[in-house]
């Protein structure tokens, strides 16, 4: 840490491990909007963010809670599972394309980039909705996991039903 007269203190968000500024700078240099995906303890959140010098601007957003309230995702099912994350990404993708934003760069923050992770199922949802986001096919979860077949047949039906409601909304 910075203690002497020639030392400089790090930014607070760097000290607390909330932001990797070198990764953020690489994403911002591209100039494209960022498709930000975060997984909390209760739900998945996805946002399309544009950099502004006075602060980032969120253009459109989607959450797991919005799936329940707007699109009929069952109340008792997880809002952060792989199928729910896919639907959140699909919702964001449809809303972004409707708002005139079809290109973006994925921003997963400090979450791990393991192949088949929930952030990549949200990425698959955005791509299926018509967005152009650079990615490798090896990180996308298998289709049976995205459909929810690995959980239960009820989840697979709920995914189809919710996806059709999202398509109808846009």
What is the compact description of this entry?
The protein has helices at 12-15, 21-29, 64-71, 82-98, 118-128, 143-147, 153-169, and strands at 34-39, 44-50, 57-63, 105-107.
Can you walk me through this structure?
The chain has helices at residues 12-15, 21-29, 64-71, 82-98, 118-128, 143-147, 153-169, and strands at 34-39, 44-50, 57-63, 105-107. α4 (82-98) packs parallel to α7. The radius of gyration is 17 Å and the shape is globular. Strands 3-2-1-4 form a four-stranded mixed beta sheet, with helices on both faces. A hairpin with a 4-residue loop joins β1 (34-39) and β2 (44-50). It is of the alpha+beta class and 170 residues long. The protein has seven helices and four strands. It has a single domain, classed as Nucleotidyltransferase, domain 5, CATH 3.30.420.100.
From the structure above, extract its key features.
170 residues; alpha+beta; four-stranded mixed β-sheet; 7 helices; 4 strands; globular; Nucleotidyltransferase, domain 5
The largest sheet, given as strand count, sense and whether it forms a barrel, is: 4 strands, mixed
Unreliable sequence segments: none
Helix/strand-derived category reads alpha+beta
CATH architecture classification name: 2-Layer Sandwich
Number of strands: 4
Approximate shape: globular
CATH fold field value: Nucleotidyltransferase, domain 5
Tally the helices: what do you get?
7
CATH class: Alpha Beta
Give, in order, the helices and strands: HHEEEHHEHHH
Strand order, main sheet: write it out.
3-2-1-4
Oligomer: single chain
How much helix, percentage-wise, in residues? 40-55%
Mean pLDDT: 91
Rg, rounded, reads 17 Å
Termini separation: 51 Å
């Amino acid at each position: 840490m910075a203690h002497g007269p020639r030392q400089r203190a790090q930014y607070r968000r760097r000290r607390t491990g909330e932001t990797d500024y070198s990764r953020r700078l690489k994403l911002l240099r591209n100039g494209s909007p960022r498709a930000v995906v975060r997984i909390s303890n209760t739900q998945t959140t996805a946002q399309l963010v544009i950099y502004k010098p006075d602060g980032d601007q969120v253009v459109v957003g989607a959450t797991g809670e919005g799936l329940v309230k707007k699109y009929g995702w069952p109340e008792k099912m997880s809002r952060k599972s792989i199928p729910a994350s896919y639907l959140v990404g699909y919702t964001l993708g449809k809303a972004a394309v409707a708002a005139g934003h079809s290109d973006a760069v994925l921003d997963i923050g400090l979450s791990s980039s393991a192949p088949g992770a929930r952030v990549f199922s949200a990425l698959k949802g955005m791509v299926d909705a018509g967005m152009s986001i650079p990615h490798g096919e090896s990180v996308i979860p298998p289709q049976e996991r995205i459909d929810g077949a690995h959980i239960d047949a009820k989840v697979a039906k709920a995914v189809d039903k919710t996806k059709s409601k999202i398509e109808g909304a846009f």
